[in-house]
Amino acid sequence: MTKKNLISSAITLALLGGLTACGSDEQDQGNATASNIEGKVVDGYVAYALAFIDTNNDNQLNAWEPRAYTDSDGYFTTSKEGLNYCALPATSKRRLYCLSSTAEVPSGSTLRFVGGYDISTGEPFVGSLATTVATSTDGQIQPRISTPITSLLVKNRDTVRVLLQEEDPNITEEEIKAIQAGIAAIFASNHGFTIEQLESDFYAKVQENDPNNPLDDTDAKLMALALKLHKAADILADAVEDLNPDKFGSDPDFPSNATGAVYDALFWTWFGEAHANPDGSLTIGDVLSESADNSTIQTFAYFLQQYALNNLVFNLLDSTGNAVHPTLLAAFQRAAQLNTLIDNKIAAGANLTTVNAIARSIEVMTAQARKADPAYDMSGDFAAVDQLMNDSNFIDAMGTEGVDVAALSSNFNSSTISTSTVQANTRQTPYPNLAGATTGFSSPQGQDQIQLYFHRPNSETPSFGDLTTCVKYTSEGESSSYYTTGSLFQGTWELLNDFTILFTMDIVGGTESMIAKLISSQPIANGTEWTYSFDFNGELSEWTGTTSGNTFGIYSETDLPTNSDSCLF
Questions:
Q1: What is the pLDDT of residues 261-287, one digit of tens each?
Q2: Is the predicted pLDDT of residue 30 greater than 50, yes or no?
Q3: Which residues are CB-contacts of 174 (< 8 A; sequence separation ≥ 6)?
Q4: Is residue 202 a contact partner of residue 223, using CB atoms and an 8 Å limit?
């Protein structure tokens, strides 16, 4: 399908589907006044994702763009309990969860979310999500929910706008929005949903875990669709980034990852297939199918390279445009296998344990799909896990808090993974009381050390407090000599669950986040040895620390380091 045919088909289908659609598009009435913007990020909920208003819609965070982070429940600006982070004193560390703009925010602007930690799996969230700003007639910004589904719809709206304006520079804003809404309505109808449902929080009932208000069929299907979209985008984006290592995250003209481009290409591959089969039944699941023929995969690669990435990346297709690179081909096939694995796993009535177990199982297989050699046939791996996911004992084990998904992924073997394997990789010892405590740990080589001082939290937020961090690291100098440097940082700590601490450090130019998972503790002479999985920017390594007793030490105010020199402990 050429660009001109794509535009023509978009307009035709939008007209046939009706140019008005129920949902947030009707709220796009104008510009918002200077305001706080609240909402949440749902995949499961994503904690500590970087949230920003993409004012120029270039898919990158620029210095002038308002930004914040999601809190430990995946909310920003207003907490799950209704706390307004923007109303806190300027000195409060929790102000970093406040997303506020001092300038007007045009309705239809894009909110983007990058990174963070998936609460349901306990693992780093890979990729990015997006939603659009919607305002009421009085200019007030409506609370927004960002999911893999809204991310797909955002890319549709962005691309439709670009294509239409290229075709007709005089097209009006009203005409663009009408066609955008019409195409979104067709997508919703083909998938059996309304626009409101596509933009809803399908995870809320599961998180509440209330037996009197169970997960219904609509939310179960939305959850499955979101899981398929995110994991497919994860696998495919990883392949695109591997084929273009000097672009994403390295080239300032490129976004940090290829997720948005993959969403764009998936949507338009579906659109092209839907145009050819206008009976109203084709879904994204049909595109991401193990039975998809080569033409579908070629279409996806073509849209990805030509439109979503503006022909600025290479290696996705050969010079004839017919052969898909083996790495991308393997990624598409694995995304399709994962799509099949997810089918019929999330059912109405599923509780939090079951949903978390499914999410963690899918995360393990997504990790395998990303790292396995393209020539390796994963069919046996998917079949083995599919069988296990029908075993209630395996689901109960995977749903237990403390399951080490990273360890299961790292040591995965389809011939040995079992309920007992999961139980052996489940953490048993929770963090001790952190208030007023101090502890330290060392890197695997022992050259780098970190000492943490957990300030006592206030009674309103017992799992959150300020943090003083001392970092001592050894670097190689000239002539193979080594020198040791100490650095002092201030930040925050927060328990994501009994086994995982999220802590931040304030650095020049921003804030860095990391997590430390407590893997195990064991008695040693005169104390306890603690083992942690330390994650910084998705890089995992095991660090160890010792204490003189079976809990962390308690410090006094006079023990707190006051400068970097005092960190040379």
A1: 899 899 988 888 887 777 778 899 999
A2: no
A3: none
A4: yes
DSSP 543: E
CATH 2.40.128 boundaries in the chain: 437-567
Backbone angles phi, psi at 429, to 5 degrees: -105, 115
Q: Is 31 a residue whose pLDDT tops 90?
A: no
Query: What is the pLDDT, as a whole number, of residue 331?
Result: 95
Question: Quick one: 481 exposed, middle or buried, by C-beta within 10 A (0-12, 13-18, 19+)?
Answer: exposed
Q: Report d(CA 366, CA 363) in Å as an integer.
A: 5
Q: What is the mean pLDDT of residues 353-377?
A: 95
How many Cβ atoms from other residues are within 10 Å of residue 3's Cβ? 12
* pLDDT over 70, % of the chain: 88
DSSP assignment string, 219-274: HHHHHHHHHHHHHHHHHHHHHHHHH-TTTTTTSTTS-SSSHHHHHHHHHHHHHHHH
Residue 88 neighbours by CB under 8 Å, 6+ apart: 94, 95, 98
Instruction: Specify the pLDDT at position 395.
Output: 96
Q: Are 104 and 133 in contact (CB under 8 A)?
A: no
Topology of the domain comprising 437-567: Lipocalin (2.40.128)
Instruction: Kindly write down the DSSP assignment for every residue of 269-307, as one continuous string.
Output: HHHHHHHHSTTS---HHHHS-TT--HHHHHHHHHHIIII
Q: Collapse the DSSP code of 193 into the 3-class scheme (helix H, G, I; strand E, B; otherwise coil) and give the result.
A: coil
